[in-house]
Amino acid sequence: MEAFQLNPFLDDKDLEIALSMEKYIENNPYLDYEKLYETFASFGMIHADYDNNMIAGTTIRGLNIITIYDYENAKKDPYYITTLQHEIIHLTGHLDNFVLNEGMTELLQSEYFNDGNATGYYEYVTFTKIFCELIGSDKMLEAYSKNDMSIIQEEMLKINPSEHDYDSLMNAMQEYGTKYQMADGLEELPDVDRHQFYLLLLPYLKSDQLSETTQTEILHYIEHLDSKTNYNTFKFYFNIKDDEQKILYWDGGSLYWDNNGNFLENPTTKK
């Protein structure tokens, strides 16, 4: 946290937002702290004066630069805080898949700073939650923090040993992510072909490595893959306070169930 205060490119508001990273950084055991210290002390901040379509901010890891677009308007928007938090989290990890990279970043931001509510990349977040169910959130955090997709591949092959199935799933996600990144405006965001991804995930769903509860959870996420709004199950994967914490899942209607897979009537406890 001291490194942020040494960074000459952060104004007072940006520094305050950066310092909010403390809990996430403390909770992540896979970070290279020495490398991160250098990054936090020196990353550049560009407050751009132009509107970059749907893009609120970008992080160029190779150059160690964060850009916030349409700054004069953005700094008045409450989402400015969310945007900069998201971009700083990008400095702490990366995955070489559009969907999982942005999905992990947004999921971490939503859990640590926004009560679990994503503010964008909704389909990406849902895909990421599917992988958290498949291989565990700890493996996803390790892969993200170490920029190592092989960790994900190794765990996926334990469930289904077919490399062809793994490559097909990843390629389809990357293709969707590419179309998403190239969309010109919210109205042009591509739809997710739920049936396609159901078939691609089916070899994993059929594996006896997964519990019935996990299979049901993944099917539930697939059902909501085409949602262009925030679909929140109130299940946290990373910012979990303790093992006794009761977390509710919500189907968007009247059905709730807890983290043990028990359906609840008139639930009184939320996340």
Question: What attributes characterize this protein structure?
Answer:
three-stranded mixed β-sheet; single chain; 271 residues; mainly alpha; disordered C terminus; three-stranded antiparallel β-sheet; globular
Nearest-integer average pLDDT:
87
Q: How can the largest sheet be summarized?
A: 3 strands, mixed
Cα shape: globular
Count every beta strand, where a strand is a DSSP E run of 2 or more residues: 6
**Beginning-to-end CA distance, first to last residue:** 28 Å
Radius of gyration: 19 Å
Strand content: 5-15%
Helix fraction, binned, reads 40-55%
Strand order of the largest sheet: 1-3-2
Low-pLDDT parts are 242-246, 266-271
Number of DSSP helical runs: 13
Secondary structure class reads mainly alpha
**So what's the oligomer here?**
single chain
Order of helices and strands: HHHHEEEHHHHHHHHHEEE
Account of the protein in words:
The longest helix has 19 residues, at 163-181. Residues 242-246 and 266-271 have low confidence and may be disordered. The chain is globular and about 55 Å long. It has 271 residues and is mainly alpha-helical. The strands form 2 sheets. The protein has a 3-stranded mixed beta sheet with strand order 1-3-2. A 3-stranded antiparallel beta sheet has the order 4-5-6, with no helix packed on it. Helix 8 (122-135) packs across helix 9 (137-146). The chain has helices at 2-6, 12-19, 22-27, 33-42, 71-74, 79-90, 98-113, 122-135, 137-146, 149-159, 163-181, 194-205, 212-223; strands at 44-47, 57-60, 65-68, 249-250, 256-257, 263-264. The protein starts with a helix and ends in a 7-residue tail after the last strand.
